[in-house]
């Protein structure tokens, strides 16, 4: 059986409530819809459960990202089964409870969806066989619990509590991820099976202390251990069903679950005892003591939960097999009595309208049935005999007596345990006496309170019945499950233990009685203690936490505000400074300033052209404030660059550069029509110096790099292209064959980018209104004659000639310099010349001015050529070629790549014209407006 | 000759960088154009320099490296597309903000 499906079921189930809600507003139907898939999951567990009870560990795995060691691997052993039952079973009870808890006004569909989302995440945590997968689900529980705690998002407390829980557990999750990655590094696998048998290897590793600390950070934050416990009381802002589910049975148990899960791999060392047992003991005592002083019903339960989680952690920390068994046992018991107590608290809140124990008194008279249930559960929490809490607490007391880790100070452990027990009895007594007796209710918002709806009590009844059944007949109820779960925790044979009510008159029993009577005594002294507590300086964790978060936020926005000040110049300077720093620090590490090969000899013409290029580039910069002059200098640079390509055996590049140059200058001139002709001098001297420095360093660095490469020994993959160009690609112009054949896919991407850029420009130009200057900076108007006759006369006959050349360049491209790019650019230039000479209106009277289809057709054609090779069973863009004989023209070779090149041609023409013609049209609009 | 090309690249990059750091859109566009010339020549030079060794099969026994040429060819065209896009972006920004300052507000020197 694939357990991925099991884990998936609650996630799918999360879709059900919103769906049901769409068709019906019946709340019972909604709850049934929510319960449907979890029930199915629970039923699906029956058969595997039998195998697990027979001693098997069931695994199922599907590879996800094998290269990262991540797989959808799931594992069902005793421990996973125990938690799966808790997650699904208590989850279903909570759904039933929430049906009556939520008022008709509330968005129940959303609530159930969040709840099921959490259920799926939690189920994933407990059944993952891959540690990375487990961390993934772990984070999902943090996220979904954020949604649940903040469900009443109109309340400030709920929002802040949710944020705090999310921050604390989320940070723990990050630490856990780091710990898990380190475990994977040490063990060489993230598979739980592998990790569990590699305990010795992990503990021998020098990374062990770090791994342990990181994993324990995850555990302690999730399970609210001291000093990370403070989020749990604030999470009580959640609706009570959420507290009953997350904060008693599941989410907070994820931490101790992980202690159990990794017990064979990480436990057994002194470090483990020192950290885990200390944190556990501190949490146990702190939680128990503070719980007594809470006046909020749920606050008491929250601190009690913290205390019990501390107890479980302490048991795991004792490094004893029996203690681990006791820990697992207490996990079960705590889940049952605490979930029922939360539900009872919810009922009381629901019926009285308050959770303040100073107002809720004497409810025995009004709701005796609920009172009995709550009192039994509280007694279990206190560890009263014949209830489940008693059994695990006895085992706990016995284990603290056995431990000898602390040497001569070993008596500290049983002392602390008894003290914890005393407080635990005291706050349980308060829960019973203060709420159900102790006089009359004071000023209740809802008066008189009465019993809740019948079925709201059912979940509480079931859980309380379990408490009693386990307490009285442990061997017939929980023993089997406990045995397999403990076995899976220990990863080996079980130690001998007895689940019985009567162990004879021994030390743990004495401790139990001391706790019982001590607790009652302390409760009887509560008035004095409350006064004492009230006089203590108040410390609200939320204020401290919020203060720190806000300080962090201020720091972040201060840094952001400084770096991200909205100035593009500043960003560019930062980026370029980084480049300069990299160049300055890395260039000196190079072996030398000159490569091994000799340089080509210098000749006069090259020197002259280079001189012109450098001069033109410098002039472009120096004169950049005189924009028209600057453009002219720029065009000289472009022309010289194309000459450079000619000189160094790159005719294709020269052709392309030349035609692009023409189009670029046209574009810049067009833009000039709308822009100021001059730039004001506004840069400060400091800024100019800084920019010159940056420009100088970067330019020099790049020049040095280029020089080193050019004079170095070059090895290239090009011999392959040169060799296969003719036989493989059917063309002798290797550059073109690379473009349309070898690297055709790249070219396809590039023409797509071209098309996108053109569309982007079109979108930007839409509805744009720009007023051009009527006069230039010197007060000269634009030429009156926009279309000089000479230009018009010359340009018109040029069009067919230029087109002919374009066709020629295109056709010969496969074998001689040319091809789709160049031909496309030449065509564009020829057409643009008509625009310039005769005007947009004249051109558009004679040909369609809509170029989108051309771009689309080009990309489509290129794409289809590629797809076409699939038809013949070849990969994308495989080309073919053959010889043809045409009368008059002669023998020539036709390659399918030509079709692709046609696509390139069309895209280039379409894109170029789309850009420029639309920009040109803008001036037309401007003219019209002026004329009107 | 290699030294000459290296100097050319250096000058193109330097002037490009300097203009890119200006406060008005037009010089920035010019700067990016210069910078893309520089980068194109730089990429081209990665294949080494050869004179009269066009990479056409059958013309030369030891032709130049065609691969950087193919890369630069598309880079030139895309560079143009980017320039055009920037120009139009600059125009749009001018239309929206009524200034040709790169930050869209004419407050002079901002930030650092």
TrEMBL record, chain A:
Kindly state a single biological-process term from the GO annotations of this entry.
Answer: monoatomic ion transport
* Record flagged with keyword Transmembrane: yes
Pfam families on file = MbhD, MbhE, MnhB, Proton_antipo_M, Proton_antipo_N
PANTHER family of this UniProt entry? NA(+)/H(+) ANTIPORTER SUBUNIT, NA(+)_H(+) ANTIPORTER SUBUNIT A
Q: Which UniProt keywords apply?
A: Antiport, Cell membrane, Ion transport, Membrane, Transmembrane, Transmembrane helix, Transport
Q: Does the keyword ATP-binding apply?
A: no
- Any one GO molecular-function label of the UniProt entry: antiporter activity
**Residue ranges occupied by any Na+/H+ antiporter MnhB subunit-related protein domain in the UniProt entry:** 790-913
- Record's protein name: Putative monovalent cation/H+ antiporter subunit A
Q: How does it sit in the membrane?
A: Multi-pass membrane protein
Q: Where is the MrpA C-terminal/MbhD domain?
A: 613-676
Enumerate the subcellular locations listed in this protein's record, separating them with semicolons: Cell membrane; Membrane
Ranges annotated as spanning the membrane: 28-46, 80-102, 109-126, 132-152, 164-187, 207-232, 244-263, 275-293, 300-318, 324-348, 369-391, 411-429, 462-485, 505-523, 571-587, 599-619, 631-648, 654-676, 688-710, 747-765, 786-809, 821-843, 855-877, 897-919
GO CC annotation, single:
plasma membrane
Please list the residue ranges annotated as the MrpA C-terminal/MbhE domain. 687-769
Q: Which residues form the NADH:quinone oxidoreductase/Mrp antiporter transmembrane domain?
A: 128-406
Q: Which organism is it from?
A: Alcanivorax hongdengensis A-11-3
Determine the domain of life of the protein's source: Bacteria
The residues covered by the NADH-Ubiquinone oxidoreductase (complex I) chain 5 N-terminal domain are 65-112
Automatic annotation (TrEMBL), chain B:
Cleaved signal peptide residues: none
Membrane topology value: Multi-pass membrane protein
Quick one: where is this thing mainly located?
membrane
The protein's matches in Pfam families, at most eight in alphabetical order, are given as: Oxidored_q2
GO CC term (a single one): plasma membrane
Would you tell me the protein name for this molecule?
Monovalent cation/H+ antiporter subunit C
Question: What InterPro entries does this protein map onto?
Answer: CPA3_antiporter_subunitC, NUOK/Mnh_C1-like
Q: Which organism was this protein described from?
A: Alcanivorax hongdengensis A-11-3
Question: Known NCBIfam families for this protein?
Answer: PRK08600.1 (NF006372), PRK09094.1 (NF006573)
